[in-house]
Amino acid sequence: MSRLPTTPFALYWCSRVLSTLAQHMQSVAVGWQLYTLTGSALDLGLVGLVQFVPMIVLTPIVGPVADRYDRRLVVVSCHVAEAGLTAALALGSLGGWLNRDGILAIVALLGVARAFENPARAALLPGLVPLSRLSRAIASVTAAGQTARIVGPALGGALYGLGAATVYLTVAALYILDGALVGLVQSNEPTRVREELTADSLFSGVGFILRHRLLLGLMSLDLFAVLLGGATALLPIYARDILATGPWGLGLLRAAPAVGALAMSVVLARRPIERNAGPVLFGSILVFAVATILFGVSTSLPLSLAALGVLGASDLLSMIIRQTLVQLRTPDGMRGRVGAVHSLFTGTSNQLGEFESGVLAAAFGAVAAVLIGGVGTIVVVGIWMYRFPELRRFHLSA
């Protein structure tokens, strides 16, 4: 098996680990601190909303920025901003002046920084490895990210015992180190011609996707499949009312999808999907739907954990196929704009999927909501297989 290039990719890989670790440590601290201050579940929901809104508003802007300017500098600038904003959370915690509105305002600004960071970071990776090794590189980065997703909340929770400011200062330091690593990355990106910023260029990422049915089908399939399959939003209900466990059980349930995703990403880093990616994609989403249904009807904690592990693994498999195809089929000069739209699709499906699950659970109960989502995902797969036949037969090759 051929090896990935070491120096540029290793720097990128390490920076991705630090970034994911910092975000999840910060998320635990923000959620705990805000809930301690207000005791409001709605405020916890607002944390996600105020980060999601900038993604929607800034999508026409962040893509062209990633395509016109040095992507490393864009990512580094975002990390410097994130470090400064996190330091403000630390100072506010130490000074005792940080309140609900202050936390939400800073979190919203963090959402702005990440809206610029995500498409630039994603578009940077294809310049670090041969395109023939891109799928393996994405799987390797994802495996590291999943590990950080598991470790980050636990580490953030442990450090919170020393005070919120301790977590925030640690996170700020991680962002600075992350930015330094990205700044050292030497990319093989071609020189890009800076287009004049016009209304057409701002929305050219959307136009590119609409002109390429394969990408349109791929992103819309993910949007609706994840939108309907948002069972993880109801984990607190399952932990307390259905599985009769305490907070420890909820922690296990939340970790299970990440553990499954980590296992799958390790496998794909060694055995990437290249041929028959279309059938594998549809198969992974069908497995995701069946795992969702199995979780929905389970009243056993071990069975529920197993179902969530399979759910996380299948979701990760479809995500890597999607990310690889988007990068391979998009010219370098368009990767930022297309990546911004892709991030919007992904963010919309995750956020609205949780909202959809909550609405259905309020109307019909948690079990019915999960079952409706799982069956709906199977229906979506059938419709997309018929409407986008090109999705059934594509391969992943440079």
What does this entry look like structurally?
The protein has 398 residues and is mostly helical. The protein has 15 helices and no strands. It has helices at residues 7-38, 41-68, 71-95, 100-124, 134-160, 164-184, 199-202, 204-211, 213-228, 235-242, 247-270, 277-297, 301-328, 335-364, 366-387. Helix 3 runs antiparallel to helix 6 (164-184), helix 5 (134-160) packs antiparallel against helix 11 and helix 8 crosses helix 14. It is globular, with a radius of gyration of 21 Å. The protein starts with 6 loop residues before the first helix and ends in an 11-residue tail after the last helix.
Average pLDDT works out at 78
Percent strand? under 5%
Number of strands: 0
Largest sheet: none
Low-confidence stretches: 1-5
Structure summarized in a few sentences:
With 398 residues, this protein is an all-alpha fold. 80% of the residues lie in helices and 0% in strands.
